[in-house]
Amino acid sequence: MDNKIKMNNAEASDTSPLASNITEYKFGHTTYIVELHFCLECKETLEDVIKRLIVHDVERIKNQK
Predict the structure, then answer these.
(1) What are the residues facing 50 on neighbouring strands?
(2) Secondary structure (DSSP) of the chain
(3) Spatial separation of the C-alpha atoms in residues 23 and 44, rounded to whole Å
(4) Model confidence over 40-56: pLDDT tens digits?
(5) Which of 4, 2, 12 lies closest to 47, judged by CA?
(6) pLDDT tens for residues 17-26?
(7) pTM
(8) CB distance 53 to 44 below 8 Å
(9) What are the residue ranges spanned by the domains of the chain?
(10) What is the mean pLDDT of the chain?
C-alpha cells in the first residue's frame, strides 16, 4: 500500500524501509529525511521544524556562493 501525505508542495511517504519515527519529505528535487523526537515541553510543531530546516539549508547554500 502506498500511503502519501501532501503538505503544501511537499510529499511525505511512509513506504520507505525507514524506522517508524523517520519520514521522507520531498520538496521539488530535494529530499529531507526527518527523524521525529518528541518533547512534551516543546512548543515547536513538525511544520515549524521542517520550515526551519529548509530556511537553514537555503541560507547555507546562499552563503556558499
Answers:
(1) none
(2) ---EEEETTEEEES-SSS-TTEEEEEETTEEEEEE----TT----HHHHHHHHHHHHHHHHHHH-
(3) 18
(4) 788 888 889 889 999 99
(5) 12
(6) 566 788 888 8
(7) 0.42
(8) no
(9) 4-64
(10) 77
Q: Which residue is associated with the grid cell 518533547?
A: 39
- For 42, other C-beta atoms within 10 Å of its C-beta total 10
What letter represents residue 41's amino acid? E
Angle in degrees, CA 57, 51, 47, rounded to 5 = 145
Grid cell listed for 3: 500511503
* Residue in the block written with cell 524501509: 17
Contact 24, 33 (CB under 8 A): yes
